[in-house]
Amino acid sequence: MHGSLETLYFLLFDGFIWGLIIALIALGLSLIFGIMGIINMAHGDIFMIGGVLTVVLVARIGNLWPLLIIIPLIVGISALPVERWILRPYEGKPLTTMIATIGISFIIEEITLIFFGGAAHMVHEPTTFTVHLLGINYPGYNIIAGLVSMICILLLWSGLRLTKIGVYIRATIEEPEMADAIGINTGQIRSLTFAAGASLAAFGGVLAAPIHQVSYLMGQDVILFCFIVVIVGGLGNLMGTLVAAVFLSAVQEGLSLVFTPVNSNVIILLLMALILVIKPKGMFSS
Amino acid sequence: MNKIMYFLRMRSVVLIIVLLALIAVGLCVKSSFLSILITMITYCIYALAYDLLLGYANQPSLGQSLFFGLGAYGMVLPIIYWHFGFWGSLGVALVVGAAGGLLVGFVAVRLTEAYHVIFTAVIASVMLLLANNYTPITGGSGGLSFQVAPFFSGWIKLTVYSIAANYFLVLAFGVAVFLLLTRLVSSPLGKVWVAIRENEQRVVSLGYNVYWYKLAAFVAASMLTALAGALYVISLRYVSADCFDFQWSVLPFVWVLIGGIGTLIGPIIGVVLFTLFQFYVSDWWSHYLILFGVLILVILRWAPQGIMGYYENIRTNKILKGGGEHAS
Amino acid sequence: MLLDIKDIHVYYDKSYILRGVSLKIEKGEIGCLFGRNGAGKTTTLKTIMGLVNPRQGEIFYDGKDITGLRPYQRARGGIGFIPQDKLLFKKMTVYENLLTGSKGQNHGQTWDMVLELFPDLREKLSRKAGSLSGGQQQMLAIARALLINPDLLILDEPSIGLMPIMISSLAEVITKLNGVGITVLLVEEKIPFALRLAHRIYVMDVGKIVYQGMAGSIDENELLSHYLGVNQR
Fold first, then answer.
1. What is the Cα–Cα distance from B57 to B220, expressed in whole angstroms?
2. Considering CB atoms only, which of B60, B126, B253 is closest to A265?
3. Contacts of C187 (CB under 8 A, 6+ apart)
4. How far apart are CA B224 and CA B48, in angstroms?
5. Is B322 within 8 Å of chain A by CB?
6. C28 in Cβ contact with C1 (< 8 Å)
7. Chain A residue nearest residue C95, CA to CA
8. How crowded is residue B145: how many other Cβ atoms within 10 Å of its Cβ?
9. Does B60 touch chain A (CB under 8 A)?
10. b/e burial code for range B32-48 (CB count within 10 A of at least 16 → b)
């Protein structure tokens, strides 16, 4: 089995699916940076909250699907005051926002540790079927998770392209000062974007709960990978972020055929450094 | 002019008094307090290095744990594997730190602020993963213990197993770094750094190669950070992969922030206050990271200039007011 | 009095940019602001829009004090702004650019009226704004500003980089808009072009208003030699 072509297919496919979930998180990160200049170090912890709430609530209501709506909603609404009252003064200053969100990250992680404990949990997959794909039996839930992520990304994309709010958001990303001067309430757009970004991360957390171990530190690995993704894809460049998420995730899984996970992380890192040497503003910058 | 001379003289007098007090403390006081002081002085070196980087050369690195860890392991591994003496391994630690700084700086220095912060943070995080993974070499999070053979410094034979000797060794490095940086920031090189911080475009148009100046600051800071890492593990006689932990990248920022960015006294004040806080609060509550987080937010909101900035503001306001009265 | 600026002082960090600027525009007028580079013209306009905040002084619009309002509130209150740089959202289509100015309504009287005024734009709705020519970009910026139904239109050097033929059609557009009751405040360096339009003239230098008067009170040569520091002959 090891080293065979099937394994490679399996890993690449797995990487692709995981890349779509990563894309949800990274897109939120990139969007928040694009609109507000916030580098959100707590973004991984928002993903973690999505996972932890899933563990807690699945035990109560016994079903994962409604949580895909409920949890992002709760998280999105709770994110509003954080942006308005804590982060607003630092927006546009990358280092300061990063330090402030590190503070928030410490608070979130420790509070989760107090109430949720340090042990890792797992949520049972809500579906049990498997799909025979390229000569391997693939868990059906992963495919559903991939499809749901894809739908979510499509909705985000069409929302940004086709709705009035989407046009306002893109205008604010491109020229924030100008957008304000021609009548767009950019303050409202900021709040909305931050909440939307947080919701996306929480949504990813719910989707990932049956695939990924849920613990109060689960955000840390994910945020590291997401940062590599947004750097390679270009901060604030949504299309680049999406492509980089799927590509890098597949590459990482593919590499794990030959290397240990840590070593494949190092290779991805070197790839990132190389891209930054050639293109200091991301692979897709002009 | 007189006022400035007076201020400078006052400052040296205060510094000499502080130094004498620190020496007296080393001679009289018992070990537990000395070990806090050793930690503080080590952190001061770290904080000063970061202040040089952020406060003077305006490079917002969030990956300093990389160089701290490199310094720590650069010190320990030669002692363990090749039985190097203190000075030999310290040399290795500094070279490794500087080389790491050169490699990372090569990429990081040309990036804009956002990319610079993320890039340095990511590199340091991956280094932590590596250190945790290669347990046979690094000891992982379990760590490695080691022995430090007595060594000569000048004509005195020192052993770090005597806490007083350890204290004076670290103090000597601390004072040397402080004096070095005082010199450095008022040298032509330091002036160019400040000019870059104030208006990079202008420095470029004056014909300076900003890249090399920034890289020089990055390498210098990495080397001093490695020195801090080396002294840290020497005093503990223990090293673990935790030296690469992300917290070690956040701490220098917090120290410098508390004390005041771009001053050499500020970081020291920041270290003293925050280390006391960390020491007592973490003793009292295991979830002190919550308070750490809250503290970061509080400082950012209410004292973004740090204590020195606050002090300077009051002083300049006084001077401005005084001057205004004269003029009218 | 539609716009009444009372003694505004503006600083960028430590540099003192506007040193007590007062300026009035009556309803229905075209006001023109002249001055050398760095005199503070653009800063004055940005202060009117709220993109820069004065340390001292007040701005009244239609009798109301707007000094503390956010830029978007001023825009929605009826001030249309056409800046000099960063004129458009270049990565977005013409249609989307228009949407940003119209509170999201892509139909209705104003929309039709504006597209009638700029028939060229109607065919290029799906083009990227960045791909338009300089003149078309200027027209699009004006069209977008018109979609919020402004009473006051502020233009910062609209003629810059335009071909002579475009400049005269720009003058035509401005006259036409003024004809339907829109007040205009114009910053210009092309003096003949601006003097032809202006009802009221202001000249700035080093952050202060150094001349004010009605159209015809000063001619081009006098303006140039006395205030703009250029000796023509």
1. 11
2. B126
3. C32, C33, C34, C41, C42, C44, C45, C84, C155, C156, C157
4. 8
5. no
6. no
7. A167
8. 12
9. yes
10. eebeebbbbbbbbbbbb
**Structure-token pair, residue B32:** 């537990």
Residue C135 placed within a domain: yes
**CA dist., res. B287 & res. B285, Å (int):** 5
Chains A and B touch (3+ CB pairs under 8 A): yes
- Identify the CATH number of the domain in which residue C186 sits: 3.40.50.300
Q: Is C148 on the interface with A (CB under 8 A)?
A: yes
Strand partners, B158: B151
In terms of DSSP bridges, do strands C208-214 and C200-205 run parallel, antiparallel, or are they unpaired? Answer: antiparallel
**Residue in B closest to A279 by C-alpha:** B111
List domains and CATH numbers for chain A: 5-121+134-278 (1.10.3470)
Q: What is the pLDDT of residues B241-299, one digit of tens each?
A: 999 998 899 999 989 988 888 888 889 999 999 999 888 888 788 888 899 899 889 88
State pTM to two decimals.
Answer: 0.87
Alpha helices in chain A (DSSP H): 5-36, 43-61, 67-81, 94-116, 140-162, 164-174, 176-181, 186-208, 218-233, 238-255, 261-278
Is the CB of C72 less than 8 angstroms away from the CB of A183? yes
Closest to A200 measured CA to CA, from A232, A157, A243, A229: A157
Give chain B's domain count.
1
Position B263: which residue type?
T
**Within an 8 Å CB–CB cutoff, is residue B211 touching chain A?**
no
Rounded distance, CA A16 to CA A13, Å?
5
- Beta carbons of B297 and A104 less than 8 Å apart: yes
**CB < 8 Å from A in window 270-289 of B:** 287, 289
**Which range of residues forms the domain containing residue B153?**
2-327
Q: Which residues of B55-74 are buried (b: 16+ CB within 10 A; e: fewer)?
A: bbbbbbbbbbbbbbbbbbbb
Chain A residue closest in CA terms to B114: A94
CA distance A285 to chain C (A): 13
Residue C183 φ/ψ, nearest 5 degrees: -80, 145
Which residues of chain C have a CB within 8 Å of the CB of A178? 83, 86, 89
- Please give the Cα distance from A101 to A267 (Å, whole number): 28
Shortest distance, CA C52 to any CA of chain A (angstroms): 10
Regions of chain A where pLDDT drops below 50: 1-2
Domain around C7: 3-227
Domain count along chain C = 1
d(CA C181, CA C196): 18
Helix (H) or strand (E) holding C152: strand C152-156
Q: Which of C70, C83, C96 lies closest to A167 in CB terms? A: C96
Where chain C has pLDDT below 70, the residues are: 103-107, 229-233
Between chains, do B114 and A94 touch, taking CB under 8 Å as contact?
yes
Q: Which of C10, C2, C30 is nearest to C208 (CA)?
A: C10
Beta-carbon separation of A98 and B121 below 8 A: yes
Q: First and final CA of chain C: distance in angstroms?
A: 39
Torsion, Cα B154 B160 B165 B166, to 10 degrees, reads 110
pLDDT value of residue C231: 45
Which residue from A minimizes the CA distance to C71?
A: A181
**Does the CB of B133 have a partner CB in chain A at under 8 Å?**
yes
pLDDT of A81 reads: 94
Does C70 lie at the interface with A, CB-CB under 8 angstroms?
Answer: yes
